[in-house]
User: Fold this.
Amino acid sequence: MTVPAILAAAEIEFATNGFAAARTESIAARAKVVKGLIFHYFKSKEGLYEAVLVQAYQPVREALNESFDRNLSATDVLLTFVERLLATWTEHPLWPTIFMLESIQGGGERVRKLGMPSLYSQVEVLLKNGIASGEFREMDPGHGAINIVGLCGFYFCAANNISHIPGRSRNPLSKQSLARHTAEVIAFVRKGTAPSS
Assistant:
């Protein structure tokens, strides 16, 4: 139970402060463990951060792999992936923020160091296949991939700001708000990739 508690506490700390400003003291206090246990299990703050990144990336990779593994049309593969990605991030709403902060503060170096394939590159391949088969409109697949992943994840990163928009839910991470987000993203991706009629 100790390792999951440390990882859960670390997710909050890294999503709030990024790697550089995160404090192992705060993680230990939130996990209700002595600080030495963090170093016992993870060797360093860097080791703990990398464990959080790996834990956050694994379900995303599985969602993409499972989507590709099926004998589906390009449209169905893309929408299945988007649904699974959003389901994962709905369950773990801090993960998109952790990856965004890693990109901003760390330049994505740790993601590369850990050998995590680029999510954007994999979605780009999916879009290229759909363009080639005529299922998707002509587009720049690189930018399309970045926009689709961003459309899925930015909502979670902006949740605190969204909660202050007049007329919006005070809790953008509520079950109802996240279901609405998922439905809107899927509709947007479906229409945005469809060939011109």
